[in-house]
Structures are given as structure tokens and as C-alpha cells.
Amino acid sequence: MEGLTLSDAEQKYYSDLFSYCDIESTKKVAANGRVLELFRAAQLPNDVVLQIMELCGATRLGYFGRSQFYIALKLVAVAQSGFPLRVESINTVKDLPLPRFVASKNEQESRHAASYSSDSENQGSYSGVIPPPPGRGQVKKGSVSHDTVQPRTSADQQEPASPVVSPQQSPPTSPHTWRKHSRHPSGGNSERPLTGPGPFWSPFGEAQSGSSAGDAVWSGHSPPPPQETWVSFADTPPTSTLLTMHPASVQDQTTVRTVASATTANEIRRQSSSYDDPWKITDEQRQYYVNQFKTIQPDLNGFIPGSAAKEFFTKSKLPILELSHIWELSDFDKDGALTLDEFCAAFHLVVARKNGYDLPEKLPESLMPKLIDLEDSADVGDQPGEVGYSGSPAEAPPSKSPSMPSLNQTWPELNQSSEQWETFSERSSSSQTLTQFDSNIAPADPDTAIVHPVPIRMTPSKIHMQEMELKRTGSDHTNPTSPLLVKPSDLSEESKINSSVKFASGNTVDGYSSSDSFTSDPEQIGNNVTHQRSHSGTSPDNTAPPPPPPRPQPSHSRSSSLDMNRTFAVTTGQQQAGVVAHPPAVPPRPQPSQAPGPVVHRPVDADGLITHTSTSPQQIPEQPNFADFSQFEVFAASNVNEEQDDEAEKHPEVLPVEKASDPASSLRVAKTDSKIEEKTAASVPANVSKGTTPLAPPPKPVRRRLKSEDELRPEVDEHTQKTGVLAAVLASQPSIPRSVGKDKKAIQASIRRNKETNTVLARLNSELQQQLKDVLEERISLEVQLEQLRPFSHL
Amino acid sequence: MAVCVAVIAKENYPLYIRSIPTENELKFHYMVHTSLDVVDEKISAMGKALVDQRELYLGLLYPTEDYKVYGYVTNSKVKFVMVVDSSNTALRDNEIRSMFRKLHNSYTDVMCNPFYNPGDHIQSSRAFDSMVTSMMIQVC
Q1: I need a labelling partner for A89 at 20 to 30 A (CA). Which of A190, A303, A568, B47 fits?
Q2: In the structure, what pLDDT confidence band is assigned to residue A469 with cuts at 50, 70 and 90?
Q3: Which residue range is the domain that position A20 belongs to?
Q4: Nearest CA distance, A174 vs chain B (angstrom)
Q5: ipTM value of the model?
Q6: Is residue A372 part of a domain?
Q7: CA of A313: which chain B residue's CA is closest?
Q8: Residue A345's CATH number
């Protein structure tokens, strides 16, 4: 007979069938009866069957050896595929489907055949039972059942022949024959006649049956024997001794086995009837595992933490790498802790590994923790321990058929994959929780970006505002950016709104209800942004769509806005920081004519903003034209120092209602202007000179006021030269009620600083001015429209 | 899609690095190494106040003619760097993000394994390897 080349799947399938037929567990001979049954189940005409038998040489030999059996199976497949039966065809026909057997018994086979996937483990080692290699510290598994073993009497002779079928030993529990996992180096030779024996774990004499148990399926690791080895995990010698006894006792095995198997025969029979999963855990094993679990965690429903499990399994003396793999396989929900089921699976895998079985790539179905109580896996029910979790209905049927061990390999794979998207809600949810990292970005830190609108304070206290303003200016010049940023949007929105006080207040950042409150409080700005619409009820139509509010500071405390500004400054660079800093200073109250314009532009052009702010002093001249600077007093008092120059300037325009004395307004403007300047100065070197700003808020405003006042006057008509104006302003500080003397010195110092910053910002200023002009024109038009739409209700 | 995937520890030594065309491994290693500077720059640019808000996904770090380097950093400053072939024009940002998310999940699973000592080379996790392979094989 020519050599037979089988694919992996075929190999597996055939070996399964062989073991099925190998009722005597001879590993060499398939019982004729069974084979014939099988062939009948193949639904081939009798003559074909006879032909097959002849071809494979069985008729010649009189029995079906393994090779004959395989050839026969292949021929069955050939015949079923419709090819002529020829000896050559066994190797020439490519991609032959696995033979299909229809008989009930073979149902499983056929099912398995269908679902067989190549399992490398199956290769060659069809050895239902792997006799524990002598010398290998394996735990003898008591053959739990030898269904097939019983008839084994003949097996003895064969056993001695290959006592050590596989160096690895303790066959996994596969009930008699599944040794899929086991690698049996002794490929074809696995004489594990001991297929049947359930896992024996007894190191004792009867363990010999264990040797047969070698075949014994693992499942039977009887707890007690293992306990010695297991509990200590260091006591392999006993097991090894046991194993050594195997070969010797092989002879006795049959007898012993039959005896021992008697008890478990039923169990095994049940199992064997359904191609038990080699990875199945028998009751004894399970009990043992549970006991071990209890030693670590008394509550059976509780978890064993990873560290405890690590210690426990480290005692098994397996290499850490393998333990890590075992953990990966057994910690099903990936929570770093082991439930009872997971623990049993892990323990089982450790035992398997210690006995030489390769770790599966995927968790065998029978070891999967029952995450969902699928009682439909009833036919698998006999199997103790974890029932395979049939993740998908599709897999349920195959998985249910407690069958071919090879299937188990595929099942876990299928199951796991299906679980991942089917029932494993836990799994997926846990993974989903992991993915939520990205979404948890915005902290609920109130000091940083507060995304939600802050309720407007309808009755803001100016004092509060002023304090905040001062604080803000003092704390961080970059803060103004936030208010500015907010303001522009507010302004833009509100620009159309010519409502008087309301708008003004709304615009002034904080939802000041007071009309003349120009608080450029960042928070308030934020409020304004959100609230302006609300409280500036009159604000009507935003003829021009307001530019999007500056993102970071919808509403947060001044300090926070300052921080934000600072960070912005950091991130965007000084220039930009300066720019950012400026916008917030825009006067909260969008002046109908001016505010919208500049505001609109401001958000658009950061640079423009800078220039805008920087040119605020210059804007002042414009605005005063049609606005009164009364607001500036408030402004000055308020925190708008930053950049509010622009807005402040606008405010005077926007709020015609608010009449402050010109000086006051000018003061305010000046103040704002100065503040803006300071801010610009500060913002530019914001990162650097933070320390300077907090110096003395009170004096600064005062200073600013002085400056701005002067600036205002000269700048009223100037658009351009800030520096000159500043100098002029600074130079000509009118006597102001506040401490002028020291202000002057401070002012001069600040003037110097401002000049420096001004030079830096000169370019931006020009740009912004240009934009300002455009915006102002727009504003004017909008204002006209507004006026048309609404008569001076706010007046 | 990825030609090279690397996991860098907080101290900037690699925990895991794997590239697909293995002959050019050194080049990819070097690219990853240089991109670490960009990663650090992006991290520090956020500022201390924004640590919480910092987006884990850093985006495109460094484009070259042939390759693009994307970065992702976890909250524990473990960095994932991925080099993708520029010829894969179809790769959108979302896909890169999802790949990083998968990486992050797998990395977390590795961390959960008590037998893994943080700071060790990630060599023991088959799941992680297979996940990375799945990401890389898509390219080829």
C-alpha cells in the first residue's frame, strides 16, 4: 500500500475515528465490528465497502490496523466524492472532503468532520491515551473510565510494547482517546490502549491503570494524589515515581484498570460515547480544584486576586512564560482575578502542562467559564467542570457534541471569537470600557475649561466684578485671552443687539444685568456668551452670525480663564498668546457699531485680535466718536483690563446709553487700554513675566487708567501709533485721584514695557486696525439695521 | 496597515517593537526612536493643566516620504508608536485611532496578567502578538 499522506484535518479526523473504533484500545487495531459499522454509516454500497476493505489491505491482514484504517477512511472519502476507487486515488485526489458517516454513532464524527479544523496537535499523535512516560513526572491519572479500556485485555501486550508512548504523559482527560492535546511524540505509536481510562490521578498502584490512564484522560486527575504533588507543586518526584511504575505495571493495568475503571466506567462510558473533550475536567479534578480554590479564597463566588494566583501557580514550577500564557487563556474576562471557573481552568491547564501537554492556543471549550448559563449545552452536560460555553448558536451544535477533541480546539477559537461579539457582553463591555480612555479627556475640573454654561448672575456685583478683574489682571495677564475670546463671540452675537444696558451687561462678559458694567470677567464672558442670548432678550437677531465663542473659556472663573490663557499662550506661542490674551479684553458689551465688527473679526483672526487689542487704544479714538466712555469707568473698575481696550472702546459706542463722564470713560478706556497694553505686554512675555503681573493689580489699573486716559485723548484721533500714544498718555498723566506719584514711576516702567511689546505687536496692530475698520463699517450697518428693527428700547 | 508597531515605556525604552518587513527593521527602529522626541514635545506642550484633557491620541507625529508615524500615549506615559506606509492613502485618522485603541486594550490585558512584571519586555502574550499581527498583516 502506498504511503498515505493526510492533511492535518484528515489526520485528526481519522485518528478520532480510529480511536472510536479502537474499542479495545489497542491503538493498533480497529475493531472490525466498529469499522464495519462505520463503513455502513458511510452509506456506501456494500460492494464499495468490500472494495475498500480489500484495497486497504484489511482483508489481507484480517484486521484494520491503523494504517489500513486510515486508508480505508480515505477511500471512503474518495468513494463518497464519486471518484473511482483505486489505490492511487488515496493520494492523488486532492482536497478530498472528509469521509462522511451517517450512522448515528458517527454523527458526531460527521459533524466533526465538517467542523474539523486542522489541529496540529492531532498530528500523528492520535493517541488516545498517552501513557505517561516513565520518568516524567506526571501524575498518573487514574483512568476514570475505561470504557474502551475494559476490553483491553489485549491491550496489555500492546502496552508493554509501547509503554511510553509519548514522552509526555498524562494524557489529558480525553476520555479514552482524545489526546489531541497531548503531543505525542510517539505519533503513530501511541499505544495507549489505555484510552478509556479516565484520568487517573492516583499515583498509587492503581495508578497504573493510570498508565493506561496515561491514556487516561486527564480529566480524572484524582485530586488526592495530585495533591501531594500539586499542593506543594514541588513534589514531582512522587508522581514521577508513579509514572515509572507505569511501564512495569502496564501488565497489571488491565486488571487493575478494569477494576479501577469499573467505578469510572460509567462515567467514561458516558464520556466516551460522546467524544469527550480531552480538556474536560472530571469531577474529581474539579473537586480538587475547588478545594484548592477554597484555600485561597473561601468564598466560592469570590475572586482570587492576581497576586495570590501568581504565587499559587508559581509553586507549580512552570516557567513564568508558560504561566503567563496559562493566565492569558484562563482569565477570561481579563479582570486580573480568577473566579472559580477560571481558576479551575487555569489549574487544569497547569496540570496539563506539567504532564507534558502543550497549551492550547485557545481556551478549550470545556474549560471556558460559564459566563452565561447555557443549559442548552446539555449533552455536553455529562462533562464535569466547565461546560463549553457555546458562544454562538452556530457553534452550539458542534460544541455540544462532546466530541472530537480536535473540535475543541476549534471551538474555543470559534467560541471566543463569537463570544466576543455575541454573548460575551462582559468581555466586550470590559473591552469597551478600556476604549473609553480617549473619551475621558475633559476633566471636571472647574478651574479649567468648563464646558457647560454658567448661570448668569443677574445681579452681579460690581465689586465682585472688579475684584475679579483685579485678580485676573494681577494673576495672569494671559487670562484676558479667555475673556477676550469669549467676548468677541459675545460681541459678535450681541453686536446686533443694540439693547442697551442689557446688552452691555451681557456683553460685558458676565451677564451683568447692570448696564454699565463692563466686566470682562472671563467667567462672565462665558456667561455672556451663553446668556447673552438669554438675558439680552432684546437682542434680537443676530444679523451677522456670531463667531463661535472662543473655545476654551465658555465660562470659568477668571483665574481659570487666566490659566487657560496662559496655557494657550504656552501652546500657541507668545504671539498667539498675546493674541489670545487680547481678545478677552474686548469689551463685553458689543457696541452696536463697533463691537460686532471688531468682534467678528477678532475671533477670525487671532493676529487681528492682537492688533486689535493692541490697537485698542487706537480704537478708542474711533469709538469715542460715537460712544461715550462712561462705560469705561465701569470697565476700568472691572477687570477688563486686558484687551478690553478694544471692547471698551466699543462699549462706549455700543452703549450709548451708558454715559459716563468722558473723563470717566476715557479713564475707563484708558484703563482698559492700559490694561490691554499691559496685557499685551504681559501676554507676550506672558510665560515669562507672569510674576510681574500679579504685582499689584490695584496700582496697575490705576496706572492704566492714567495712561489710558491720556492715551485716549491723544488716541482718540489716532488710529495708529500706539507707542506714541502710550508715551503721550503715560507722559501726561492727569491727576487722578489715585496715588499718582507712585503710579508715575510704575507707569513709566510699564510704559517701557509696553513700548517693547508694542514694537513687537506693531505689525499686528496694523493688521488689526485694518480689520477693525472693516468691522466697524459692518457694525455701523448692522447698527442701522438694528435701529430700524428696534427703536431705542434700551435707551 | 502598520509596518511597524512599538510600545515604549515611560522611561523611553521599548517594551515591544515589531516591524513587518524584517529586513528594514533597523530603519524602523530608528524612526520610532526619533519620533519619541515628537511625542515628548506634544506631551509637554500640553502643560500641566491640561494633563487631564490631553488627548491620548497624538496623531501624525512625523511624515516622511515613505512613511507616516503616528503616536498615542497613555495616561501612564506609555507610548505607542505606529509607522504606516504612506502608500496606504486610504488610511484615515479614525482607522488609526481604532488601531491604537485595540493596541491599548491588548496592552491593558497584558498588564492585567499577574505574571507580567511592568517594565518587562512584552514577549509572553500571544494575544498581544496576534493582535499586532492582525494590524500589520492588513497592510501586506
Answers
A1: A190
A2: low
A3: 8-92
A4: 25
A5: 0.83
A6: no
A7: B115
A8: 1.10.238.10
